[in-house]
Amino acid sequence: MNAQIQILKAGTETDSDGRNSATVDDYIAFLFEHCGLCHGSARNHRRTCETLLQFLHGRGAPDLASLRPSSILDFLVSLGSQYSRTTLSSKCAQLRGFLRHLYRLGVTERDLSLSVVSPRVYRHEACPRFLDRAEIKAVLAVIDRSTIVGLRNYAMMLLLATYGLRASEVTRLRLDAIDWRNQRLHINKRKAGNSSTYPLDAQVGEAILTYLEHGRPKIKHREVFLSSVRPFGPFRTGAIVSTQARNYIAKAGIHLERSGSHIFRYSCAQRLFEQDVPLKTIGDFLGHSNSDSTRRYTKIAFDQLRDVALGDGEDVL
Fold first, then answer.
1. Residue from 166, 172, 216, 271 carrying the catalytic annotation
2. What's the CA gap between 80 and 77, in Å, rounded?
3. Is 265 noted as a catalytic residue in this protein?
4. Superfamily of chain region 133-316
5. Residue 297 annotated among the catalytic residues of the structure
6. Known catalytic residue: 296?
7. Residue 124 annotated in active site
């Protein structure tokens, strides 16, 4: 457990004796031990907690015991200028959890989680944007494959576009997950705790092999994709994939309000819908553990929804 917490530490403290940082560490340990959070979710919780500490420090009141409902409100207002309602709602949930923990520890005299009011968010309210085949082709075309970074990024973008993988699944991909002999790609320990096996697409396999032979540093790390600068280690998060995806989408002249690696996931779902693949099968392909996670993708299945409206789409539902 100590090793898990150490991985998630940000390495910064907002007070001289580290009491606030120790309190956050204790909360993250609680999330691991009693809530079963994965590393990615725990990092998000830690980031929210540390943002609160930085906010208090900037106001000259770094002691968590000095928290008041007015401070919480001001903090939420500051977050509201940075995030969408959906993201802010998640931040509020994370903040409530931390404030309840402070009350359990006796750090605060009352449960300040009751002071956190989330913005109203309707389930599946946003229609996801996707890239069509021509747009995906345009994004891949702008990647400069004459460079080491370009070879790596091209392979990563192909994995996103072909399989709809999450950014973190791309950066965690290991060499032994590629079965070259049987032409299979294994994605293990997905967000829902499951695993998936795909046929290894020829274009994807060629792109990965080219990167391994001509771009990847010759070191012992088992992750496929490594940093292009010393010390050439694996990536800790999927942020690099999201950033590169956003850059290439913009470079291809595609203007989106919000872009990143996840748009390839929606695009993959749309492509499967166009092929009349059942919702359950699409969920399995994307690594979802339940149909609710997949159902929001039905909003981009325009042809199928048109059939429903005309009374001819009973099989789609």
1. 166
2. 5
3. yes
4. Intergrase catalytic core (1.10.443.10)
5. yes
6. no
7. no
Asked if 36 contacts 79 with a C-beta cutoff of 8 angstroms, the reply is: no
Q: Token pair for residue 176?
A: 């032994």
Query: Catalytic pick from 46, 145, 152, 265?
Result: 265
Among the four given CATH numbers 1.10.8.60, 1.25.40.10, 1.10.150.130, 3.10.28.10, the one describing domain 2-115: 1.10.150.130
Mean pLDDT by 10 residues, the chain (317 residues): 47 53 88 77 88 88 84 90 85 93 91 88 63 92 96 96 92 95 90 83 96 93 93 90 94 86 86 79 76 60 51 47
Show me where the domains of the chain are located. Answer: 2-115, 133-316
* Catalytic residue chosen out of the listed positions 19, 174, 191, 295: 191
The Cα 224–Cα 177 span in angstroms is 9
Radius of gyration of the chain (CA): 22
What residues does 184 pair with on adjacent strands?
179, 199
Q: Measured between alpha carbons, how far is residue 183 from residues 151, 176, 285, 317 in Å?
A: 21, 12, 17, 34
Task: State residue 123's pLDDT score.
Answer: 60
Q: What are phi and psi of 179, to 5 degrees?
A: -95, 90
First-to-last alpha carbon distance for the chain, in angstroms, is 44
163 catalytic, yes or no?
no
> pTM, whole model, 2 decimals?
0.64
Q: Which of 46, 145, 172, 262 is catalytic?
A: 262
CA torsion through residues 95, 243, 128, 155, sign: negative
Residue that is written with structure tokens 């994605």 in the block: 187
